[in-house]
UniProtKB/TrEMBL annotation:
Pfam families: EthD
Native source organism of the sequence: Streptomyces iconiensis
Superkingdom in the source lineage: Bacteria
NCBIfam families: EthD family reductase
Protein name from the UniProt record: EthD domain-containing protein
Length: 114
């Protein structure tokens, strides 16, 4: 499987709390309205930052991270270029994301412990 870590930054006119509220309460429920089988995603997790800090260690400047697991990069490509994604999901992202600052990390997991 391929894991996509998608680093998200809010629109400059929104507070972090407004971003979180929109992402979790309005945007995410859109996924449940899509036709069954259309989303080739095996797992979807939202990571929300805490206010914690460790002295001397820099903190990433993102408002959240979406983790998406797919069977292959072909599935990811099919999803992120589909009409449904571009007209429904991406269109709604304009309401809370600064899409110009969104970054993707494509990875595989190599469990070490735990």
């Amino acid at each position: 499987m391929i894991k996509l870590s998608i680093f998200l930054t809010r629109r400059p006119d929104l507070s972090h709390d407004e971003f979180v509220d929109y992402w979790t309460q309005k945007h995410t429920p859109l996924l449940s309205t899509l036709p069954a089988g259309e989303v080739p995603v095996r797992r979807y997790v939202q990571l929300l930052p805490t206010d914690d800090e460790i002295p001397g260690i820099s903190t990433a400047d993102y408002d959240g991270v979406a983790e998406v697991w797919v069977d292959s990069i072909a599935d990811a490509t099919r999803w992120f270029t589909s009409d449904t994604y571009t007209t429904t999901i991406a269109a709604d992202e304009e309401n809370f994301l600064d899409r110009s600052r969104t970054r993707f990390l494509y990875s595989t997991e190599s469990p070490i412990f735990g």
